[in-house]
Specification:
Strand content: 25-35%
CATH architecture: 3-Layer(aba) Sandwich
CATH class: Alpha Beta
Oligomer: single chain
CATH topology: Rossmann fold
Radius of gyration: 17 Å
Shape: globular
Order of helices and strands: HEEHEHEHEEHEEEHEE
CATH superfamily: Vaccinia Virus protein VP39
Helix content: 25-40%
Number of domains: 1
């Protein structure tokens, strides 16, 4: 595919991630390349994917999946609602296009994490599981985390919006409408203590907490 053909191919899509496709072409993501660089550093500084298997949950068009592969991951699986019929988001098409353009092999798996009686055991285990920017979008994030946690053989990296509740107890605030960021798909605002305790209950022995890319976001690197 020539540069002009690639530019034409990516133009019809809405992109969440700015992804360097090579040959001087980068997708025009809602997340800028500068922001992506910061988030890559935050995510992978404590979870080196070299020679590791990686599951990217909520992968969207594959920005973090591509980065994991470029950092030397031995296998990358991208999970999202790839069967979604939303007109503005054609995730399966975009991640397939990214794979063709970059030559990177990413396995795309279509799963809705809010499916009743969710089971993820069939996916097997991965050395690193990325669970970035998804927790607060789920109607039942605790049920999803219960399924996700056993998939992480070494480390689970959870990134989320967090609330400053002014209360040291583990708490989550429920947003039934679009009160959180004007987005009706944002359901929950956990505080730091809530996420830490949920990860401990899920069986992780050490949890490193670090700032995210905005004041109301945090990263939790949870290790076995």
């Amino acid at each position: 595919m020539t540069k002009d053909e690639l530019i034409a191919a990516i133009a019809p899509y809405t992109w969440w991630h700015s992804i360097d496709l090579g040959g001087g072409v980068t997708t025009s993501g809602i997340k800028s390349a500068e922001l992506m660089a910061v988030e890559f550093a935050n995510t992978f500084s404590k979870a080196d994917p070299r020679g590791k298997s990686v599951l990217d949950i909520g992968a969207s068009d594959g920005g973090f999946s591509v980065e994991a592969a470029r950092r030397g991951a031995s296998r990358v699986v991208a999970l999202d609602q790839y069967d979604s019929q939303l007109e503005y988001w054609r995730g399966r098409e975009t991640i397939d296009l990214v794979c063709r353009a970059t030559g990177i092999a990413i396995e795309a798996v279509a799963i809705d994490l809010d499916t009743p009686r969710l089971s993820l055991a069939h996916l097997g285990q991965f050395d690193i599981v990325l669970f970035l920017g998804v927790f607060y979008h789920l109607i039942d994030p605790i049920a999803a985390l219960r399924e996700i946690a056993p998939l992480a053989r070494e480390v689970l990296v959870l990134e989320t919006h967090v609330e400053e509740t002014g209360d040291p107890r583990p708490l989550m605030i429920f947003y039934p409408g679009s009160e959180l960021g004007g987005d009706a798909t944002n359901w929950w605002g956990p505080n730091t203590a809530c996420v830490r305790e949920l990860l401990q209950i899920a069986g992780f022995n050490r949890i490193d907490i670090s700032p995210g890319s905005a004041p109301d976001r945090q990263l939790f690197h949870a290790y076995r």
